[in-house]
Amino acid sequence: MKHRCQGDSVTEDPEFTDVIENITVPAGRNVKLACSVKNLGPYKVAWMHFEQSAILTVHNHVITRNPRISVTHDKHDKHRTWFLHINNVQEEDKGRYMCQINTVTAKTQFGYVHVVVPPNIDDSLTSSDVIVREGSNVTLRCRASGSPTPSIKWKRDDGSKISIRKDVTEVTEWEGESLELYRISRTGMGAYLCIASNGVPPSVSKRIKVSVDFAPMVWIPHQLVGVPMNYNVTLECFIEAHPTSLNYWTRENDQMISESTKYKTETIPGTPSYKATMRLTISNVEKSDYGSYKCVAKNPRGETDGTIKLYKNSKMHNLSSKRIRNGACYDVDRAVSIWFDQMRASGAIISTNMILEKSKQFAVTLNKDFNPTTGWLWRWQKREGISLKKIHGEAASADSESANNFINTLFPNLIEGYKSSDIFNADESGLFFKALPVSTLSRKESHNNGFKSSKDRLTLLFICNATGDYKKAKFISECDAAPSAENEQEDITETISDLSGDEFDNYIRCDDNLVCCGQLTDEEIVKEISLEKEDNEDYSDSDAEDEIPDEIPSLPNVLNSLTTVRKFLLPQNEFIQELENIEEYVYKNYLKKITQSKITDYFKETPSSE
To answer: Do residues 214 and 297 touch, judged by C-beta distance below 8 A?
Structure first.
């Protein structure tokens, strides 16, 4: 400590009593720096911005012309404190601030002001909305300022994955100022978000829309449509195009079809936005309406069309109409439907073989000459909206969201600190030799409440560690089954584990043993159908079952393949006429062989030279 002499007295030199605190402050806030001094005497205190070499204040006076700077001091404090005030702090205010006492050898101390600035995206250096052709490479750029320097992250606005550079698979996020989209397709169309963040709230983002242009493409679900006269029919084409295409329908002579009482045209937007469905509804079909119809789609990138051939069919099949669909097997269909609904209401498990067998029984009861086939069964299921559904089993009710949360969040914490060789997994696998079927036929709109199947089984236990160098399989001779579960919603109180072999056979083969309280008998079902026929004036017992379904699976595949070759593979449209002749040949032979069930049956009988 130094002293100075003044007259006959000795006084101490001034000195700092505390350090100046470093401060981190967001831009726009106010800052106050404190400099405490004792024994100041006649000396003065000054504040300076060290990096700018600028004197800000001297004692009680403000030297700088910056209106945001001011100075105050606490003269009542034993150790006098001088406060430097900076209002509305800006990024240029950051740096070292020096408090100085003007002694012979100046005394100084420093405090640092760190100004953090929220991110701000620079629009002039960031990509705007872009329009590209399908198959092009696209690079999106995003630049942002802020302190600290912001990081850039890319996401798609709808949360879907991003297809980026050729050497990288699809990702949900991408970090970096540039996002490279390699050979972008229509699925890459949409809005991309550039998100800038640096830990100083708020983060900011910019939405960049990427439009992918391509020529229209047409998919026709049914290229051959059969309909009787005096019925309504709807033809459909699926369109993909961007920009949005101009869509219309024509007849064989390329005459455009206009909206009228005869024709109703509509285009239904789809998802994503480049998809649409074209529909043409023809009312009260007449003889002149049979023939070819074209759905045409045009946009600035190109034009395409698809052809649908409408032919006369003696009966309506799989098309909506005001008439009730009847036939020689209608009574059997209706009886099976009533029986099926009763069995499912009681909780019974129904298989396709049971449906076929039951239809035979009803045919005998109804005195119908009817032999069910798999084709009849398929059509019956389609008409009734019946599909195969799983009714019980742990896997069917697993919570995938919770499982993913465990794998991605909890599991890494559990195994932290363990070697891979010390992490083991064990699981069992076995034959449930007394279990009921796990699936049943059911109406699509119905909810299936099943019950736990029997757990009696032959069991193997498999054990291995995470490195795979330890693997064991053990046979478990005794394994207690889980308690049998009763179905609380249905009157089924026994599972298969409670049945003997004979009882099991009866349960499966004879529906009389099912618990079916309040159900109609077969005779009562037949009687109900007779009453329905009396109430239905349109019913005609002379109508015959459709000999051929309107949709032949193999024929659309043939025509689709030919269309693909014709439109996309042949250079300069070579041999187009030959392919069109083949298409016409297929169609004519389809009509000629209308009694066949499959078009492929005809090709098997036809010499390859044709």
So the answer is: no
HSE value, Cβ hemisphere, 13 Å, CA-based, for 573: 3
98 and 24 together in one domain: yes
Give the three-state DSSP class for 333.
helix
- Domain match, 371 and 464 both: yes
Size of the chain, expressed as the number of residues it contains: 610
Q: What is the mean pLDDT of each run of 10 residues along the chain (610 residues)?
A: 51 87 93 91 92 91 93 78 94 94 92 94 94 94 94 93 75 92 91 94 94 94 90 95 95 89 94 94 94 95 93 61 49 85 80 87 84 84 79 52 69 73 78 64 60 62 80 66 41 45 50 46 74 57 40 50 53 48 60 48 44
Same-domain pairing of 370 and 465: yes
Residue 295 and residue 218 in contact, taking contact as beta carbons nearer than 8 Å: yes
Single out the residue in 214, 229, 262 at which a domain terminates.
Answer: 214
Q: Is the preceding peptide bond at 549 cis, omega within 30 degrees of 0?
A: no
Q: Are residues 166 and 101 in the same domain?
A: no
Whole-number Cα distances in Å, 400 to 172, 392, 406:
19, 17, 10
Residues 311, 290 contacting (CB under 8 angstroms): yes
Question: Do both 111 and 128 map to the same domain?
Answer: no
The torsion defined by the Cα of 73, 76, 80 and 81, in degrees rounded to 10, comes to -40
Cα–Cα distance measured from residue 137 to residue 130, given in angstroms and rounded to the nearest whole number: 12
3-state secondary structure at position 35: strand
Does residue 341 lie in a domain region?
Answer: no
Strands 23-26 and 107-121 turn out to be: parallel
Q: What is the reported pTM?
A: 0.48
Quote the crossing angle between the two packed helices 554-564 and 576-592, to the nearest 10°.
170
One domain for residues 106 and 20? yes
| Whether the Cβ atoms of residue 280 and residue 257 lie closer than 8 Å to each other | yes
Record the tokens describing residue 151, joined without a space. Answer: 């990081």
pLDDT for 216 equals 95
Helix, strand, or coil (residue 525):
helix
Last residue in a domain, options 97, 117, 137:
117
| Domain boundaries, position 243 | 220-312
In contact, 442 and 341? CB cutoff 8 Å: no
CATH at residue 272: 2.60.40.10
| Strand blocks (E) in 75-177 | 80-86, 95-101, 107-121, 130-133, 138-141, 144-147, 151-156, 174-175
Same domain, 136 and 210: yes
